[in-house]
Design a protein that fits this description.
Layout: E1 3-4, H1 7-24, E2 27-32, E3 38-43, E4 46-48, E5 54-58, H2 63-71, E6 74-80, H3 84-93, E7 101-113, H4 116-126, H5 133-139, E8 144-155
Antiparallel strand pairs: 1-8, 2-3, 2-6, 4-5, 5-8, 6-7, 7-8
Length: 164
């Protein structure tokens, strides 16, 4: 069951999302359309803010999320740590020192123009990927974002492997 986010939880959530980005380069954003059908979209331009239990993503190729947000602003974002070293260490130890997956729940806001500091932050996150031909095509134009405000989270419980 999802739990209300506390300040200490938020720091752990941010650390987890930061670590998972190094192995996945994306998170999964789940929304629901007007007919109640789910839609899951991978997003590589998602960032969490330090405070306010919020984050944002750059609206580039996400027409499904935008359409669904107008009908239902509820959203769930999942980050899975896919690092081979994380999994190998966990399997050798017989437990996860940290959860392999965290989901955060919230409400998506209206589309707005990205601020220069937001663009600078995502460019720093993307690093050298941005200068490659594919990176230029994917992330060359980042004019709009949507903010998301979170209130609950849930960590993966994987049987006896989960920490107590």
């Amino acid at each position: 069951m999802p739990t209300t986010i506390s300040p200490s939880d938020w720091q752990k959530i941010r650390r987890h999302f930061r670590r998972t980005f190094t192995s996945n380069f994306h998170v999964a954003i789940a929304t629901v359309d007007a007919e109640g059908q789910p839609n899951v979209t991978p997003i590589g331009s998602f960032l969490l803010n330090r405070s306010e239990y919020s984050g944002y993503y750059f609206e580039i190729f996400t027409t499904g999320i935008a359409k669904n947000a107008n009908a239902n602003p509820n959203v769930c974002i999942m980050a899975v740590n896919s690092s081979k070293w994380f999994w190998l260490k966990s399997l050798l130890l017989g437990r996860f020192a940290e959860p392999p997956m965290i989901k955060i729940y919230g409400k998506i806001g209206e589309r707005r123009a990205a601020k220069p500091e937001e663009i600078k932050r995502v460019n720093r996150r993307l690093g050298r990927m941005k200068i490659l031909p594919g990176g230029k095509k994917l992330f060359g134009n980042l004019p709009y974002i949507r903010e998301i405000h979170f209130d609950r989270f849930e960590v993966a419980k994987v049987g006896a492997m989960s920490s107590k």
